[in-house]
Amino acid sequence: MRTAPPEEEDEDAGLRVRFRLSSQESTPTGSGAPAWVVTFSDMMSLILTFFILLLTFARFDDKARYATLVDSVDDTFGGPSPSPAPVVSPASAPEISSGPAIAPSSDVGQVQQATKKVLLGLQQLSQRHGGRLRAGDVEVEVFEDYRGVVMALGVGAFFDAADAGVRPGSWPFLDDAIELAAGHDSQLEIEVHTDRRTHLTGDPQADDRLAGAQALSIARYFIGAKPDLNRDRLSVRSMGSIRPRFANATEADRARNRRVEFVFSTDATD
Fold first, then answer.
1. Widest CA span of the chain, in angstroms?
2. N or C: which terminal CB in the chain sees fewer CB atoms within 10 Å?
3. DSSP state letter for 222
4. Cα–Cα distance for residue pair 229/180, rounded to 1 Å
């Protein structure tokens, strides 16, 4: 029987023997599955459970099954049970407006008819008083725009230069104008405009203040001539030179821009 060489005689061989022995000891003696298979099977089980849970949520059709599912989740994970969202039946669903309400066609027709009446009344006033109210080459104009029905006259028809006192010659026209506004329950706005080149007072800001004083003088005349006038439907405005109707290239155009505008706006209450 051959005996193994002593360990001290072949140190390298001894090292190899010891290495082989340690390798043999680390190898499992059983025949089980590798460790990665166990991990993979656990992951597949979790995925299958997740899809079953999704299927359960997708197919519940009564409150009892939903409550059972919620209680099960609550028992498993803890915490308060979620409350189901309220179901709104189509019959009780609120109506949602998609935009501003549109006025009925009857109201639109009333406004159009009232506007025509005011326009006709102003045209009659222009024919009746146009000769007296013409200021130089500035004629009386009646037209419609986005504000309503407008009657434009030169400032000289109502005021002397750089003065805010209403001329007596314009009183008959003002009396008829306020009667027209009150008769149709119209909103009446008095606008006084200037031009940007002619400075009656030598100061553009002073001209704007003068225009405001002139508009206020006309409003005061209206209130004095008709004390029962609804003052909430009367307003004044000094426009200055921000809204010229004509180019300021010539003196004639500048004179036409220096004007008083009576703006009549109507509504469906007429």
1. 155
2. N
3. H
4. 12
Residue-wise pLDDT tens digits, 121-178: 999 988 888 777 776 667 889 999 999 999 999 998 999 888 899 999 999 999 999 9
Q: Report residue 38 as tokens.
A: 């166990």
For the stretch 227-255, what's the b/e string if a residue is b when 16 or more beta carbons lie within 10 angstroms of its beta carbon?
eebeeeebebebbbbeebeeeeeeeeebb
Which amino acid, 214? Q
Q: How many CB atoms lie within 10 A of CB 119?
A: 19
Structural domains of the chain, with CATH? 34-82 (no CATH), 105-265 (3.30.1330.60)
| Gap between the Cα atoms of 192 and 178, Å rounded | 17
List residues bridging with 135 in a β-sheet. Answer: 138
Is 147 within 8 Å of 167 (Cβ atoms)?
A: no
Q: How many CA atoms lie within 13 A of 161 on its CB side?
A: 7
Q: Residues 6 or more apart from 123 whose CB is under 8 A from it?
A: 142
The 3-state DSSP class for residue 57 equals helix
Is 241 in contact with 169 (CB distance < 8 Å)?
A: no
Q: How far apart are CA 71 and CA 76, in angstroms?
A: 9
CA 247 to CA 245: how far, in whole Å?
A: 7
Among the listed residues 264, 269, 267, the one whose alpha carbon sits nearest the alpha carbon of residue 181: 264
